[in-house]
Amino acid sequence: MENGDKREVRVWCDGCYDMVHFGHANSLRQAKALGDKLVVGVHNDEEITKHKGPPVFTEEERYKMVAGIKWVDEVVKAVPYVTTLEILDKYDCDFCVHGDDITMTADGVDTYSIVKAAGRYKEVQRTAGVSTTDLVGRMLLLTRQHFRRGEFEYDVAKEHSSTMGQDSSAKSPWTGCSQFLPTTQKIIQFSDGKPPKPGDRIIYAAGSFDLFHVGHLDFLEKARAQGDYLIIGLHTDPVVNRYQGSNYPIMNLHERVLSVLACKYVSEVVIGAPYNVTNDLMDHFKVDLVVHGKTPILNDENDADPFAVPKQLGKFMILDSGNDMTTEKIVERIITNRLKFEQRNIEKEKKELKVWQYLQDNVKSTNQIIVEH
User: Fold this and answer.
1) What is the pLDDT of residues 138-182, one digit of tens each?
2) Its family (predicted)?
């Protein structure tokens, strides 16, 4: 302690952070709450391929995505797959935090065994209903079932809702996780909850922001630079499916809300925003400028330009993010390497089931000892 000031608590997290989603963000949010500064280590492509199989994103893309999460203070590149005491000490971190799922090396060793044994490990609750494995599965299945949640909410659905496009044969309690259930509490936890200040220049952008990726991140950084307060309008799943087709969106509206809210450039999100940017919307949010990326703009169902109003007001701008990544390109990566990713998912589940069985057997043994005594 110096001058009576409390020592800063530094928290360490590490991982692959491949296809960064709101589950990763929620884990990092919880980790940040345990200290003052959050340092996140990200494995490089070589380490991930060795222990887990090929990543979807490159290491540079993954470093950028983690740095864009609002709770992250520092990013450390190319950290070892097994967390050591040396790396915690090197970055002056008090302890390591991870979700309550299992992470193992290629040899089936718990990657956090060293820090656990030293008492420098804490666990946070993983977000049920989403994982990189699950998202890859949704893309491989090429169905629309993952975003259909009932005919009253979405008129496109006459079929029964399923488990978010997951493989129903999944047995692992982590890979075969339960359907994500959104709550207002979760949205509050992700939101800054801060209204614009008087005089703030307010920027508005709308879209699907599906499988939140580096292209979105670079666009949002450029959008935020146009003003002080960035509002993102997220279209409903049927609307997204109308202009993107196939099995899009891969992530449903509630998942996309949390993914976008986790971005440090975003101030507020409009859930289920209208496709047409109307005068009412512009007035309600006091929008100074509407921006859109260089992706094609589809007219609405009445063949009208959805940005006609802001264009007439002289409040519309096309932004070049400088990044040509799209959700479609991510899906192409998955489909191109379909066999590799399918095998990766199978191998991951095998390892998880082995550990799960071991944990269950240990619980049974412990219970037996208690009964006998």
Assistant:
1) 776 655 555 554 333 333 333 323 333 333 444 444 344 335 566
2) Belongs to the cytidylyltransferase family.
The domain total for the chain is 3
Q: Are residues 42 and 102 in the same domain?
A: yes
Q: Specify the pTM.
A: 0.79
Residue 261 CB-half CA count within 13 A: 23
Paired with 161 in beta bridges are none
197 and 252 in a single domain? The answer is yes
CA distance 260 to 262: 5
Q: What is the pLDDT of residue 161?
A: 32
Whether residue 305 is predicted with pLDDT greater than 50 in this model: the reply is yes
The token pair that represents 345 in the structure block: 């998912």
Contact between 202 and 287 (Cβ < 8 Å): yes
Query: Long-range pairs for 221-224 at CB < 8 Å and ≥24 separation?
Result: 221/68, 221/265, 221/321, 222/291, 222/319, 222/320, 222/321, 222/322, 223/265, 223/291, 223/319, 224/265, 224/266
Q: What pLDDT shows up at residue 172?
A: 40
In the numeric block, which tokens belong to residue 196?
A: 């614009």
Cα maximum dimension of the chain: 81
Residue 306 covered by a domain: yes
- Angle at alpha carbon of residue 298, lines to 323 and 155, rounded to 5°: 115
